[in-house]
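Retro notes
What went well: the complex prediction finally ran end to end.
Inputs used:
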Amino acid sequence: MMKGLKKWRLFSLLAVMMVFLSGCGEDYLSTLKPSGEVGKQQLNLLLLTTVIMTLVVVIVSVIYLLAFLKYRRARVGENVIPKQVEGSHTLEVIWTVIPIILLLIIAVPVVTTTYKFADVAAMDEVDEEGNKTALTINVTAKLYWWEFEYPNQGIVTAQELVVPTGEKVYFNLKAADVKHSFWIPAVGGKMDTNVENLNKFYLVFDKESKDLKDGVFYGKCAELCGPSHALMDFKVKTLSPDAFDAWVDAMKATEGQTADKASTDLGEATFANSCLGCHAISGSGAGGTPGPNLTTFGDRNRVAGFLEHNEESLKAWIKNPEEFKPGNLMMNADGTAPIYGNLSDEEIEALATYIMGLSVEK
Amino acid sequence: MSSYTQKKGFGAAVWDYITTVDHKKLAVMYLLAGTLFFAIAGFEALLMRIQLMKPNNDFVSAGFFNELLTMHGTTMLFLAATPLLFAFMNMLVPLQIGARDVAFPFLNSLGFWLFFLGAVFLHLSFFMGGAPDAGWTSYASLSLYSPGHGIDFYVLGLQISGAGTLISGLNFIVTIITMRAPGMTFMRMPLFTWTALVSSALILFAFPPLTIGLLMMLFDRMFGGNFFDHTMGGNTVIWEHLFWIFGHPEVYILVLPAFGLFSEIIPAFSRKRLFGYSSMVFATILIGFLGFMVWAHHMFTVGLGPTANAIFAVATMAIAVPTGMKVFNWILTIWGGSIKVTTPMLYALGFIPSFVAGGVTGVMQASAPLDYQLHDSYFIVAHFHYVIVGGIVTALFGSAHFYWPIFFNRMLNETLGKITFWVFFIGFHLTFFLQHFLGLMGMPRRVFTYMEGQGWDQFNYISTIGALMMGVGVILMVINCLMSIKGKPAGRDPWGDGRTLEWSIPQPIPFYNFRQTPLVRGLDPWWIEKQEGNKEVTFAEPLGDIHMPNNSAIPFVISLGMFIAAFGALYNPDADKPWSIYVLIIGLAITFGAMIARSVKDDHGFHLHKEEILEIEEHLYGKGGNK
């Protein structure tokens, strides 16, 4: 009876914590509202440790308050000399053993989950035809944007990660310049993108992102990487497996897409003259371009990863990228003008319309 | 000899402080310098909090924000917390073990001046082209990429002040091992002295990796070395290891003496000996030892692999056990005691729950897979501020109240002290408690701004209000300190509940501390004497001549040479500053010249004769002498 009561208490504590914690944050950003296996297991660990640790804090505080209330000098008398106690072996043993037990309760799931999260053996599995069975994405973090390359599909995109729901998606992580860290709080995370070696891990995306407020999950750079570290956001679009396959096909179909300098469209001609050197507009092939791939720009959720997605922000951005993302690499060496020079308002107007029109979904 | 008792002019007083080797004067200098840098770093924190008060704020620029966050962390840890704890260690360790000074008074002075000039050098970066901006951790890829001289200021400044810290650490180890009064066995040492010993041992082992790391960084930045340049076969992860092999023990270097300070305050105001003294000593050593085994928990997301992560996770959790022992021992010290809620005791009482809260979030982050979510988010910011502010800063404030009479023979105002405590304490929890949730809600740390619509606005606003309250608290504290100048002399053992030797000395403390070396007859010697009705500690020797060290300007000159040389080294890589090499040479020449002068000149100190002692004491305490 007593035992059952205790369990019930623990359960209710857990329930209260759950309600309290899940009240926090947005479902596209908060680690407390995970939509994926990795994030959910991390949340379970959070709840387990929080319950145990809250218990510790409460017990310590209660003993401490009792001691404080009982033994104030005003109560025990001004001239009382308390008994000078040396210590107690029994008590020492108790408060050594109990914490060890509590820590063991935490340590077991911690160790097993550590190994589980690091298991990326499936990345190398192939079917009968020798094709990789798992979806792998190469993430390259650059000052201050993200490149996502799908080596098995032969496509590449930037700033907005597109993934299918319901399967393990594997990531190869690397930084191109300085160290960054790849984090999608609401799905799970995080892992650093080092400059010298590949890091590998996986995430699972449960929910299609179209029902979220912005239709995307938010991704963050978690390692200080320079002035615009705070602005190095990316977005994650999760699609049903069928929709994802369709998206991959649409991306593949952009093979060879380019801009023509001789085009009658001023936007396209300007793009060809001023932008194409760094930005590709074909999603087929490998990454490694100096600037983000813009094939899906019109489908994206933000300009430059964090500005509102409309022509106004895009024009302002093209006019002076430094103003919005200090330290970005679109400026010339002395920082006075963009590397493509100062374009005329007319050119920028046309360019913005052209770039906004780049899409594989429309 | 009346020269000890004459009033001095201002210039002579300054010269006295520059040349002094007296541990008590150096303690005061550490206290002042530490407070100065604490105020600067606190101000930087306020600027950052104001910037983050609302989304998309433009109070400071992105680049300047990075300088602020770097200098805030660097200053708080290296140039505020460390010297403030050194102030207490310098003042108290010799007094607690019954010594007349530290083992190497000359080195004590050298340690201070190296620290101080290194710190000044680092801060001059603000006015000389920009402060370091790669975080206090200065991770290699970013710090190598960082333009300008900011990182060079960081490397050179920390190298110089780090040398000072290392020298001081060595000095404390030797002092505590060799200079204890008769009867002061290791297991009778006050717990603060114990923590000073363990913390100094940690300095001895932890600072060399930092020195090596900084030297490699210096080579990379100034001579095109390629230790960390991955394009040339270097590796940035090595920097992370070197930094954290230093950086994690550094946390314990700071927090152990803070534990020590509370282990003095709590027994005094509970009128009860420290519960489980021997297990407290054991826990201190164990924490110090384990502190070297857990550095990679700062690197769970670096990709060291599951085995390394699992081992470091479990090792980190293990530290919770000795720390828990300490907390329970403190509580059991209170239990059955007679608690007087003075300001220092108020800080101690506030410390226990705050520090436990910071400790348990540490265990959460030790859980490696969970840390993947918490790492580099605001959760970690909340965690380490709970430990550092809740543990170390409360210890410093509380001890400032507690030991003010030892430092200055004055008491701080108790009422204002209690008001300060509540303002600071409430502000502290207001600032940092909600930051746990900001982290869980996906806010990365070290961001100069954030966009609207991410659910972070309210908590950030409240956090800033809390930070402003903390700022008010610090100002009240400083006002209290200044007001004490006009206070009445406090006299010997002003709290009435002092237990250890430092309280047995008549006030003001003469520069030789103990007229006669005391005989220590157990733990808490002054308490034992008081219980036996003695007005004076038992002496181990008759009144006789005292051997004391001479003052010297050489430590200052050595440090000044390094300070000058650092500018030469800093500008040496610039093609347009050919003069820099000469500055470097002149600086080093000054340093080495001073070192040679020190080596050639035999300085045996001087003897203070019996009659002079009596004369000094008559001047200090009036006719009748030290009774």
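What we learned: The mean pLDDT of chain A is 90.
What to try next: split runs per interface for comparison.
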